[in-house]
Every structure is written in structure tokens, then in C-alpha cells.
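Hey, I was hoping to borrow your eyes for a little while. No rush at all, and the record is pasted right below.
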Amino acid sequence: MTTFYDIPADLLIPALADHLSETKGMEAPEWSSFVKTGASRERPPTQSNWWFLRAASILRKVAREGPIGVTQLAQTYGGSQDNGAMPNTPGVASRNVIRTALQQLESVGLVEKVPTKEVDSEDGKQQLYSGRRITSSGHKLLDSIAHANRSKAEEMYPGLSKY
């Protein structure tokens, strides 16, 4: 059986984005048409389905590296911050975009939070989380989309046929 590890990201992410755009509960927020994806960006994205592409990319990243948190994802999706005459420094992506996409993926049932420990606070006990990981239904979705795109991947990358 083909897994999502076997299919390159440039084939898997657009197919997954098409599926997520048809999924009930996944919709682009109203502010997504004019928001930048990070502080180091000058303009908003020009693609019409950029929200679903980012959500699909986040889902794949959570599946490969999970449990993973919003801060680490923001550093991954960030770019280079232009500091003028000073050396460039790493810029982070918009945490609100990542957090909202993760919340939507969580409401659909593809991602879940990973509890680590409970701490005492002024309000009582509070749960701490180490990030999010993919659920079994999310893993099944990724694998089914990867299996559907196997023939296209073998056409584009002939070396994949031996795997």
C-alpha cells in the first residue's frame, strides 16, 4: 500500500488541498483574502486556494513531524526578514493563520492535541499540550490520497516504481 511518505509533496499537497476544499468544516476565513502569511512578506498570497494549500501542507507536516506546535510551524513556514543594512534574520510566519488552520483540521477530526501534564493554577488545574499529532482518520485520508496519485507520481518520477 502506498503511504504519504512515498509521494512527493508537490503532487500530494494540491490533491489534498482539493479534498480539503470539499470537506465540510474547512473553509477559508473572511480575512484570508487580504492577510499576509508572515511579517517578512510584502503582499498577501495571489492564489485563490492558498488557504487549503497551507492547511494541506500543515496536515502533511504534522503527520511527518508530529507532535508539533504552532511556534515550530511558524518557524518552518517563515522566511528571511529583511533588516536593511543589517544582516537578514529568520522571519516567522503568521501564527494566526497556522493556528486557525490547525483548529479547523482539529474540528474535522484529522488532527488532535497531545496532552503532556496537568499543572495547578489560580483557576484550578490546567492541561498543558506538547503540540498536535495526526489522528488515525487523518492518516487514512493522507494514505488514500497518496494511493490515488501513485500513477501520476510514477509518470513524473520514474525512479519511484521500485519502492
In short: The chain has six helices and four strands. Residues 9-162 form a domain with the Arc Repressor Mutant, subunit A fold (CATH 1.10.10.10). The helical segments are 9-22, 50-65, 70-77, 95-108, 136-148, 150-156. The mean pLDDT is 90.
